[in-house]
Amino acid sequence: KLAELGRPAAGLTASIHSTVPTGAGLSSSAALEVGIGLALCAVAALSTVNLFNVQDQSRFCLTDALSHGALTIDRCIGATKERSRYGGHLYANKAPGMSLLALPAALVVGYAPTPQIHQSVGARLWAVRLFACGLPFLLLVFLVGRVCESISAGTGAPALVTFALGTAVAPFAAVGFDHLPAAAFGFAAFVLAWRRRPLLAGLAAGAALLCEYEAAAIVGIVGVYAALFGVRALARYSLGLLPGAVLLLAYDWAAFGAPWRTPLAYSDNEYRAIHTSGIFGVHLPNLHSIRLVFIGSGGLLVISPVLLAAAVGLVLLWRRGLRAEAATCTLVTLAFVLAEAGYGDPYGGDSPLPRYLIPALPFLAVGLAPAFRRLRIPTTLLAAVSIVAMTTVTATWTMVMYHGYPDGIWSLLARVPSDGRYSWIAIHFAPNALNWLGASSLLAGTTACLAALTAFVLSLERDPSPSVAALPAL
Length: 474
Hints:
The chain has 24 helices and two strands. With 474 residues, the protein is mainly alpha-helical. Strands 1-2 form a two-stranded antiparallel ribbon. α11 (216-227) runs antiparallel to α17, α16 crosses α19 and α20 runs antiparallel to α24.
């Protein structure tokens, strides 16, 4: 079912005049590549046990409240700034989707947060994070790889590894942030709409909205894409959207007195002025935010330059004739970039990069397929650079979230060969699940980095094919 989901149909131009092709299935060798790639990406991105943060406190306090049939988190949230206040009670200042998603795992492992903020993370919280965020991460990178493989055979594996480990999804693969669940459901909605499954696409879009209010942009743009296939497709998409949208409105109504009220309007922290201005704190883009998003210490062109190749790839996809799909991916990307460039705090507090862009990244990553095929050498080089930088961030960022990377990530990496095990990066490796097996922090962090390197090298073994049965050749 997952393989079928990740196999897009022909582009809109072709589909208007012909039946939807079934596409080529995964060969046994390709399936093995996918399995190995996913396993290595999991070691590289999910083994890191990031320190406890206020996002964990806010979301999982709501998870604990839901397990007791309540919405208020007065006794759990403590002094954490990620909260909202309404009617004399405290609430999570996030959409409830990820808290709901974490509920089964929290009940199984018996995890319940406490009002005290602590930095150490045990196996229970790590397991809850893996269920609520790690599984969506694996689904998302699989879908990106499968879509790219269908566009051009031989590009799926490098696209999967590059997206998983060379973009901002990697550092947030095993933390208490809701960007990845929103991204996974939002991109699944697009893929399902592409496969002419508008009802299921609507269900996925509703789930994305339930995880993150900002996913409304994805819901709307994918809805327009679904409408291109007829009024009936739009009606089925809208019907599928209802459960998630109704559940979100019901939560807002029960917690804040009206379905149109959101937690951000009642933020009980220093960011309230930002949240209550503009649209969810978003204004017109400004030069300061644009600089941070693209060339700041965690800017896209600094630590994930392969996204530039992906953007060129979307242009190539348009020229190929997949214009509706290329336009949809471009519009989602532009919507989030413009919003990020107009937000009062582009990095979102203690984040090492512009994390609010994460839900748009899989749409941009669709361009990796034509990029790896037509611009293989420059795309491979940019991917290698991105994976090195982002793997380093993944393995260290929660250890340095309060003071960042002195002189920048590349300056620190340049000193690793001479400083070795005493380098700044080696000293700041975050805890890792391998530590529970007796490995030192240095060994565990190095293992995660080697897993990333191995995944990328293995992904480059096959040369891209000029055509795929499901789609016209580039």
